[in-house]
Amino acid sequence: MRGRANIPNSFIKEKPYKIRLLAISHDAYRAGSQIILLNFLRWIREREYAEVGVLLRAGGALEREFEKVGRVWKLSPEAQRKSFRGWFSSGARQVAPLNKLADVLTSEYRPDVIYANTVMNGEALPYLRSLNAPIITHVHELDMWMRQSMSREQFAVVDRNTDLFVVVSDAAKRNLIDNWGVRESKIRLIYGFVPNIVNPERTETDLRWERRHALGIPDDAVVVGGCGTTDWRKGPDLFIQAAKYVLGRNTAKEIHFVWLGGEDAGARYEMLRHDVRQAGLDSRVKFLGECEDSRPFFATIDLLALTSREDPFPLVVLEAAMFAKPAVCFNGAGGIPEFVDRGCGRSVPYLDVWQFAEAIVELIESPALRERLGQAARQRVTRLHSLDVGGMALWKVLSSIARAS
After folding, report:
1. CA pair distance 130, 101, nearest whole angstrom
2. H-helix or E-strand containing 223?
3. Which of 28, 56, 77, 291 pairs as cysteine with 62 (C-beta 3.0–4.6 A)?
4. What CATH number should be reported for the domain holding residue 25?
5. Is residue 198 included in any domain, yes or no?
6. What backbone phi and psi angles, to 5 degrees, belong to 185?
7. Containing structural domain, residue 334
């Protein structure tokens, strides 16, 4: 089984080989890696490429969406508290302790290949080895997050029970090799991908006008967007600092900064609101919290400010690119400069908020440049990072390793 990383590259022709896939997700929250998984499973389901089963370590807002693409097993609350060492549930029925998981799946759903989405599912993998199905681990994390979340010994369990790692960027690949000792031959790079989120039935202009009206933003104002959870890694505090600098430049245009995602109540939110108030930015900086449909947001903004301190290959940049919006990001924070530096925006030295803000000002003051970079971003995401392109690349890996087993 250890030799299965040598996967043939032959393209799947006509009707693909139909397999039984078991996907593992650490939860069903509305975040990047979970959304990638859900989109990919929908894509498989629509094409009838595989029978899909999903193992959730925990629930979340997307749980019902996962249930639409295949059969779902979820850890009970007791198991979640005990970190994978408790009881396992199938729907509402509690069926077996985790060490009997392989027996349950053997009788109810015997997979041809196991697809662990993120390294955070490592504790489950030894229990699944007896199914004799190859295991692929899709890595959406970088070094800082991994070191905070797991020990070397815990990652060794992931490595030992993974036949092939898939990574979302070259930065994620270098992290596994340089910092975690994974051999390069065991890694396959497939860049992050997104579906076409532009709704042909509603124009971008309509979405833009409606959202700006709801937020009280003039249609001719320039809107700088931020997007993601509001934890330290995503840098919402840096977003506020950049806004403070840009709004102090006395540019001719009215400028607003709007952040989508994360909390809209609680301690973390109040800390951000404190900074906004103390900086005198109440009328120009808004944190909106989560929403189910991000399309009006991406239609509303004119450019995306990615203030992440660590982010392997964030989907928000690709989603903004679908709407022809360029991005500004930090070098050294992850893999997105691999996209942005291809004429799709601007990248600046890590944590240099002054240069970050200056790049925003450059795009604000030059609508023609903003348009050119945005159109290049749209062309690149459509050509290289669409769900059809990335989904097929990932499917080829999964189906090939299943057939080789």
Report:
1. 10
2. strand 222-227
3. 28
4. 3.40.50.2000
5. no
6. -65, -15
7. 204-384
Let me know whether 134 and 232 are in one domain. no
Side-chain-side CA neighbours of residue 45 (13 Å) = 18
Label each residue of 86-150 as H, E or C: CEEEECCEEEEEHHHHHHHHHHHCCCCEEEEECHHHHHHHHHHHHHCCCEEEEECCCHHHHHHHC
Domain count, the chain: 2
Contact assessment for residue 36 and residue 118, using Cβ atoms and an 8 Å cutoff:
no
What 3-state DSSP class applies to 12? coil
The model's pLDDT over 329-388, given as tens digits with 9 standing for 90+, comes to: 999 999 999 999 999 999 999 999 999 999 999 999 999 999 999 999 999 999 999 999
Paired with 167 in beta bridges are 139, 189
Summarised one tens digit per residue, pLDDT across range 293-343 is 888 999 999 999 999 999 999 999 999 999 999 999 999 999 999 999 999
Phi-psi region of 178 (alpha: psi -120 to 50; beta: other; left: phi over 0): alpha
- Determine contact, residues 348/327, Cβ cutoff 8 Å: no
**Model pTM score:** 0.86
Q: How far apart are CA 319 and CA 32, in angstroms?
A: 11
